[in-house]
Specification:
Blueprint lengths: L21 H11 L3 E9 L8 H18 L5 E9 L5 H10 L4 E5 L21 H18 L4 E2 L4 H9 L10 H14 L2 E5 L14 H9 L5 E4 L12 H10 L4 E6 L2 E6 L1
Parallel strand pairs: 1-2, 2-3, 3-4, 4-5, 5-6
Antiparallel strand pairs: 7-8
Helix pairs in contact: 2-3, 4-6, 6-7
């Protein structure tokens, strides 16, 4: 069986959109040949009370650590978190980060404060101002990176996935190159990680988040902490697309990948 170096983005039933146990997800990772695996359950702070996130994340970390002991010597298992919109409720963000001991924290923006997740946008609605939504998205993403309380920025082109899949007219993604360049530059300057999210590899059309040219740009600007994550929510998707992400990293000139233990970057050759 071909080994996969890592998959550092996945969700269990402790995520609002997950349905399988941590143990099931870890078993799938082991079967897929993943060598370094992280469960990174959602903590979108806007849902702090609704999803009882203080308690939910605590349980998630406890089960991840238990699985880490069970797979010791067979597969490295990391306790992670996908921290969504952390600046929207800083008091909740502070609590979850202080109350748990994570190996890595993925930072993500799924929606701008008081606006819907891009997943829920109606791209058929002629009144939708897509340019405004994206401008607000990149403002929020840059603010999160400037804050810097994360290890890795996850799926930085998150809105593009839904535009690509659902928008009824051709969209000029290149119009946002300046914003993405600023995102990449800031990540490199602050020494933060960039995730290659491979969840779109099986889609039609197939895509990576971000696309390869931004991975190359991260390297050009001195970025060193490149991670791979399939963003799996079910066992069958663990490790999905990781080979494609690995090939993109190599094509961009990377000779190493990064994972985190207790927030410290560790590099492995590829």
């Amino acid at each position: 069986m071909k080994k996969l170096p890592m998959d550092l983005h996945s969700h269990s039933a402790f995520s609002f959109d997950g349905s399988h146990s941590v143990r099931d997800m870890c078993a799938a990772a082991f079967q897929a040949g993943v060598e370094i695996y992280a469960v990174t359950d959602h903590c979108d702070v806007a849902g702090w009370e609704e999803y009882d996130l203080a308690n939910t994340i605590r349980q998630s970390v406890a089960e991840i650590r238990g699985c880490g002991k069970d797979y010791a010597g067979k597969m490295k298992i990391l306790a992670g978190l996908e921290l969504g919109e952390p600046l929207d409720r800083p008091e909740c963000t502070k609590e979850v980060l202080a109350d748990n001991h994570f190996d890595l924290v993925l930072g993500s923006i799924h929606n701008v404060k008081d606006r819907p997740d891009f997943y829920y946008l109606n791209f058929q609605d002629e009144s939708l101002d897509l340019n405004l939504e994206l401008e607000l998205y990149f403002q929020s993403l840059l603010a999160m990176i400037r804050w810097g309380g994360i290890d890795v920025a996850a799926h930085i082109t998150y809105p593009f996935r839904y535009i690509l899949e659902r928008c009824p007219y051709p969209y000029d993604f290149d119009a946002w190159d300046h914003h993405l360049d600023e995102v990449i530059r800031l990540l490199a300057e602050k020494g933060l990680g960039l995730e290659i999210n491979t969840s779109g590899v099986k889609k039609t059309p197939s895509y990576l988040m971000p696309e390869e040219r931004w991975i190359r740009r991260y390297r050009e600007l001195g970025g060193e902490n490149l991670t791979l994550g399939a963003d799996a929510h079910v066992p069958r998707d663990v490790g999905s697309g990781i080979c494609r992400g690995l090939a993109a990293a190599r094509a961009a000139g990377f000779k190493w990948l990064c994972y985190y233990e207790e927030h410290k970057p560790r590099h492995i050759k590829i």
